[in-house]
Amino acid sequence: MNDAALAPPRRVTLFCGHYGSGKTNIAVNYALWIRSLGYRVNIADLDIVNPYFRTKDSAARLDAAGVRLISSAYANTNVDFPALPTEMYAVTDDTDAYAVLDIGGDDRGALALGRYAPAILAEGRYEMLFVVNRFRPLTRTVPDALAVLREIEAAGGIRATGIVNNTNLGEETTAEDVLASLPFAEALSRESGLPVRMTAVREDLAPALAGSVGPLFPIVLEHKYTWK
Question: In this structure, is residue 7 part of a structural domain?
């Protein structure tokens, strides 16, 4: 993985964004990256209302790497019951391990973060990254993306510290698509006052973009990762 430009991870990293932004896939890849550095990692699925892609879809891959997955017992079932296990408090209580949190899309999904926000803020060793995909209908403009970000912050009780540019069309994404998204990400950065922490790209596109985009975070797409 070409991660030389990535900043060292904070003890807790939260990924938030609108539905279809790709935050879950990035959260999984980020947890695996931290694990590859030799650290113990917990990844928690706080996205209790997302009907699309769940962290639990990557359970086998996470388990094989030695990453602990914490998610609702009702994830990937037909039961619409927004329950979180008591094990979820490991993300705040187990301070010897790194924690990656997948926060629910938009303001409604981010409400679950509220119960953990005070402990995360008190510890102070966190980063909350807003994942944005310009090709998604509700985040195609800077004002729209900024509105989504502010709604999530208000609902979850934590302010974002950075942006992840994840503009993509799934398997159809080209290097040119990624390059064309950079002005959008930079404009969102200016308007929000937040730095672009990374641009996530499909792993096979990374060689063509190395040196032109940075920091670059190559990711492996899950087979279920699609919104078309």
Answer: no
The per-residue pLDDT for 106 is: 62
Residue 6 placed within a domain:
no
Q: Which two tokens stand for residue 51?
A: 């009907």
**b (16+ CB within 10 A) / e for 154-193:** ebbbbebbbbbbbbbeeeebebebbeebeebbeebbeebe
Distances (CA, A) of 93 to 21, 24, 72, 222: 29, 23, 18, 30
Q: Is residue 29 part of a domain?
A: yes
Provide the domain limits for residue 80: 12-219
Task: Check which CATH number belongs to the domain holding 60 and give it.
Answer: 3.40.50.300
For 57, list phi and psi in degrees, rounded to 5: -60, -20
DSSP state of 140: S
CA distance 24 to 20: 9
Burial of 78 (0-12, 13-18, 19+ CB in 10 A): exposed
The count of other CB atoms within 10 Å of the CB of residue 39 is: 15
Q: pLDDT of 76-133, one tens digit each?
A: 444 344 556 678 888 899 999 999 999 976 666 678 888 899 999 999 999 999 999 9
Helix 142-156 / helix 175-192 crossing angle, nearest 10 deg: 60
How many domains does the chain fold into? 1
Per the structure block, which two tokens stand in for 116?
Answer: 């953990």
Determine contact, residues 45/15, Cβ cutoff 8 Å.
no
4 in any annotated domain: no
- Kindly report the backbone phi and psi dihedral angles of residue 128, in degrees, each rounded to the nearest multiple of 5, phi listed first: -115, 115
